[in-house]
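During the practical work, I worked with a single protein chain and the tokens that describe its fold, as given directly below.
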Amino acid sequence: MSENNHQHHGHDHAHVHEHRDIRPLRIAMILTGTVFVAQIVGGFISGSLALLSDAGHVFVDLASLVIAFAGLRVAARAREKNDIRFTFGMRRIEILAALTNGFLLLGICIYIILEAIRRFAVPEHVHADSMLVVAVVGFVANGISAMYLHRSEHITTRSAYLHVITDLLSSAGVIIAAIILSVTDWQWIDPLISLLIAAVIIRGAVRVIKSASVILMESAPEHISPDDVRAALLKDAGVINVHDVHVWQLGSKDYTATVHVVSEHSSDDVVQAVQTVMKEKFDITHTTVQVESPGFDHACGNCEEDAS
């Protein structure tokens, strides 16, 4: 391969301490599973739709915790066995899980909304005392889970932490509904809280589905424009031209790029300059750089359009 046409790779990967997150995830799974069972049983005993709505939310969050736990274990095992099939690791597991959870959440919300509408038309008596007890248990358990997950380092575990915080807020809403019911006997407050919980869940689900879909389509991250990358490299990397710029996400915060640059300087110096710009300006730590001389006849699909 000629000196002017090299492909170099930046492998400045951040080391994540996945083993530190395994124990907090185990604790959170046990606590969240306990909350789920308690809310299902308590929801049927008390007749509270708000509790059952929150249980649906907790179930999906429990699935998120299990998938996060499994993802860390599978990724660790793949590294130990040095499985060459997964050249980028197992980063897409969390994205696929997020997409699945998003659609599950939407399905649960449709049930909640239909049942709430039915209860507005035909009110059902709710036992506020048992509803309150279960809601308080859920609130305390979610609070403990949040405490354990608060200092988690892996992106998957951080996502699970945000789920637990949402559960914490939902439990607070159910507690408020139970207190109002015990004082006023307003039966419509239960389906109303259910609709509010459903609205929060739908908002989060749509955001998750949108984000996961963008990543799976290998689009450029919203905050990184290929045009900005091209302009930054032309300005700061000492190159004549930049073309065939591709930026995509492997995981939630894991960015990768490939770029062709034209330069008259030493290939190694140019690669170092390009990787420095990509890391410092765009937080991209894995960049593949192809360096070409001004007279190099490249054939890379749509390069000609980008070279202008």
